[in-house]
Amino acid sequence: FLVTDREGFVKVVRCLADEFLTDNDPRVHLNTRVTRIEWGNDCVCATATVGGSSTRTFCGRYAIVTFSIGVLQQLQEAGLEFSPPLPEETVNAVNSIRMAHYLNIVVEWDTRFWEQDIVFVGYVNETDGRYFPIMHELVHVENATVVCMVITDTLADRILRQTEEQNKQEIVIVFNNAYNLTLQPSNILSLFLPDWDINPLYFGSYSNNPVGVTNETFATLLKPLRGRLFFSGEALSLNYSGFVHGGYLSGIDTANYIVTEIQSSGEKGITKAFIFNLCLLMITTVIVTWTLVL
Asked: In the 3-class helix/strand/coil scheme, how is the chain assigned residue by residue?
């Protein structure tokens, strides 16, 4: 699906945030990276690095972890530790899910050479899809010169590890072959590649369930550890994994579950804003973010 609203997805986030957050709200901790999570029978504590230097610890009766499946599969590479380590059944369930590698490459040219009113262009070549099989316009205005190219899986990994000049050379080959042109790398004004696949905060674009993932897999990951540590996010949405609204709905489900647990146990301190907070966290898919019920 293409989002043509110039404000993008951030518009949704801002609408939710406006319901319960204020400017520079102290409840939101930016530039704060969780490095260790200690969980037990009574509480959960998270140690985080603030601004890349100082350390701070957050503790609460319950915690909701929204790390991506990619991060949970590569804890050491992500610089993250659980203490005690996650149970074997949880680790096995995490490893049974696959992270998709879906790379959008944004290319700005010095001139427009493709047709107006073109939504998608499919390009097939003899090298097993190596050269960007799908292209579409990113800016929907007349005479726009920006296109978005899509490549996936191991081919996306290869592109991310090449130099910008190497990628420009390959992109020029694609367009020259598709449009019978003689473009040069210098005709590309700018090139942008998001690094989700190799970024230790994500290690992938979104979850993708292979053959063998069952309802039991979801049940294992949705089961709170010692009744205190919860996992949530798009990967745990049974019907909409891999989608933004899957993360949104997963956040609501997890919030409601904890609210019920707190109310049945007689504990106090829950508010309506807590549920909205979860929804916001799931939509933004900030992998290093987690929520504590203090």
From this structure: CCCCCCCCCHHHHHHHHCCCCCCCCCCCCCCEEEEEEEECCCCEEEEEEECCCEEEEEEECEEEECCCHHHHHCHHHHCCEEECCCCHHHHHHHHHCEEECEEEEEEEECCCCCCCCCCEEECCCCCCCCCCCEEEECCCCCCCCEEEEEEEHHHHHHHHCCCHHHHHHHHHHHHHHHHCCCCCHHHEEEEECCCCCCCCCCCCCEEECCCCCCHHHHHHHHCCECCCEEECCHHHCCCCCCCHHHHHHHHHHHHHHHHHHHHHHCCCCCCHHHHHHHHHHHHHCCCCCEEEEC
